[in-house]
Amino acid sequence: MVAYKSKMVERISLPSREQRERNLEAAGYNVFNLDAADVFVDLLTDSGTGTMSDAQWAALIRGDEAYAGSSSFDRLESAVQDVMGFPYVVPAHQGRGAENVLYGTLLSEGDVALNNTHFDTTRAHVANQGAEPVDCPVDAAHDPDSDEPFKGNFSVERAREVVDEVGAENVPVVVSTITNNSAAGQPVSVENTRAAREFADEIDATFVIDACRFAENASFVTEREATFTNASVADVAREQLGYADALVMSGKKDGLANAGGFVATTDRDLYEACKQRAILYEGFPTYGGMAGRDMAAMAVGLREAVEEAYVADRIDQVRELGAALEAAGVPIYTPTGGHAVYLDAEAIFPTVPAGQFPGQVLVCELYREGGVRGVELGSFAFPNTDRPELVRLALPRRTYHREHIEHVVDTAAAVLENRTEVTGLRIESEPEIPELRHFTAELEPVPS
Ligand code: F0G
Asked: What is the pTM assigned to this prediction?
């Protein structure tokens, strides 16, 4: 059931098809290079792109911009304590800032970090410490048709194999990313979180939860995990997060804010160490790279994120988009995850050769056809990994309406209908860091 009405609006428009063609070419067939004003429905990311509530805007006006001892930090700290159950909070400018603070404190050269699936910035931060990021997804994660309820889970079995190979003393960090963004936004069960925690204890590692989408994850748990069907989203969130020694959080997701993030922990020594690194890279520990007003808005957002009406509305919209795409015959990853629908580009374009980025071709066609912007999360974004060619359509929180969803579905259906007319893409120029290639590389069509 719809839980909101609009109170502020932003004008959008659809450029002509000719203009969209020109924009694509000028962007080097990389939609990160488009002007946002040229995008009609922007599903590039759910990160920092959502709509704030009136309560958040009210809190923002009262933001305390003091360098030290800001009351907005106190509000953020209280929200993290109440909603997530963690006493110590180190703010950061966004999730990757928090990753730098936490992983820079916990990891050294030659270490191995285990994660159900590293998100791209997480992978890059682990590598930046000279450590090796190793993914431990469950087998079902990469099967777009499996109807397992928790395809985002951390595979303890796989993790044990890695530890047997490299030695427990070289694995100081075990991470569970909830929901598992790089595995189609699939949820992680509480039972699996407990098992990952026990495994981390066994090898004497710090157990971290990447909590970006903790509320969406908790909502799936109340739907799918028998023990929790009568529990509230707020209670599940606290229980699940409670297994971690530390959280790394991007407030741009389930903080319902446009900026910000933090590390939270129960470990006083880890807190003190993180604070020192935060001062170096982020800011004084009562602002950490955020404006006071952004901390104030996030403090309210964190509390709203676990409200039943909010999270039901959120999950339902993503599910609705997935169901409508399926009804239109567009192959998608199922079940749909928390924040996005992932399209199966290989199934849509069987004639585009694997080396010619079928996912990126799909991203370009969605823009060409309907001014819709998604993001490729296949062989273009993750070079040298064996991953399905997925395109993510991420829904900003509380932002788009049913008409927008219908436009996206009509656009994808039209792309599918004209599927035989497309050609592949090849890279024309790319940056030095392969983990970050998809943000700035430029491409060109392969002549047919
Ligand atoms: N961890 C996960 C699981 C994420 O999805 C993200 C960001 C981050 C960490 C980093 O947070 O952007 O605040 O620095 N994901 C965005 C996305 C960018 O589009 O999925 P950040």
From this structure: 0.97
